[in-house]
Specification:
Elements: H1 7-23, H2 29-38, H3 43-67, H4 73-91, H5 97-115, H6 131-148, H7 153-162, H8 168-192, H9 201-220, H10 226-244
Length: 246
């Protein structure tokens, strides 16, 4: 995998992506997938690699947000009860490369909108999540998380904010753990279906963690990274177009 063309440039961009995503409580899988798409990684390599990176970066991000007291346990379990088994199931499914790219491109739109703060406004009014709403939303997001190789935070966070189920910091903390459990379930599903993780993926983990540690810490301390988010959104737009038309 590390023989991929321009791998040095890829390794320079990777910690920037993990930094930005961790700062908003995400693991960064959509960003990693976008980068891997831009650098022509094979689809069978992209899914398990993104999920593995998610485990480490989302875990770091959750630690910092939890430490600051933003984690809403009840809100998390509303989604996680159905997302975990369906993320595992989604991870066992192998789909055609062209279909995979199109689904990923659609899901990247959520990441782009999130980075542009389309869903970034908080509301003082917080609505309680109805159980069946949480189970349905969690199940659907979990399935696509395992299928595509993401944690689902790029979809869950906007929904929490849009439907006023929590404030931004709560959304970040809940999404971080949601991403972690879905990534773990999806990765187990991948491994159970015979997918193997290449040894040099550990290099990518180390590089991504550098950005993840700083992003999680600074994000939980209310550091504004708006200009960098616009840069990342631009990269995601390019990747989205590449996925749709290649």
């Amino acid at each position: 995998m590390l023989e991929t063309q321009n791998i040095s440039f890829f390794l320079m961009l990777l910690p920037i992506v993990s930094f930005l995503y961790a700062s908003v409580g995400h693991g960064g899988a959509s960003g990693y997938l976008a980068l891997m798409a831009l650098f022509s990684f094979l689809p069978e390599v992209m899914k398990p690699t993104a999920l593995l990176l998610n485990l480490f970066v989302a875990g770091i991000s959750f630690y910092y947000y939890y430490k600051e007291g933003f984690f809403n346990k009840k809100l998390f379990f509303s989604f996680a009860l159905t997302s975990i088994p369906l993320a595992f199931f989604g991870g066992t499914i192998d789909i055609d490369a062209s279909i995979y790219k199109k689904i990923l491109a659609v899901l990247l739109v959520f990441a782009i909108l999130k980075m542009l703060n389309v869903f970034g406004k908080e509301s003082e009014k917080i609505n309680q999540v109805k159980l069946w709403h949480g189970l349905l939303v969690g199940g659907i997001i979990g399935f696509f998380s395992g299928l595509i190789g993401i944690g689902g935070g790029i979809i869950l966070t906007p929904l929490i904010l849009l439907l006023h189920w929590g404030n931004m910091k709560e959304a970040a903390a809940v999404s971080a753990l949601f991403i972690w459990v879905n990534s773990a379930a999806g990765l187990v599903g991948q491994l159970s279906s015979g997918v193997q993780i290449e040894s040099d993926t550990l290099v990518l983990v180390g590089v991504a963690l550098i950005g993840g540690v700083f992003g999680g810490y600074l994000g939980s301390k209310k550091i504004n990274n708006q200009s960098l988010r616009y840069m990342l959104a631009f990269v995601l737009v390019i990747a989205c177009v590449k996925l749709m038309f290649t």
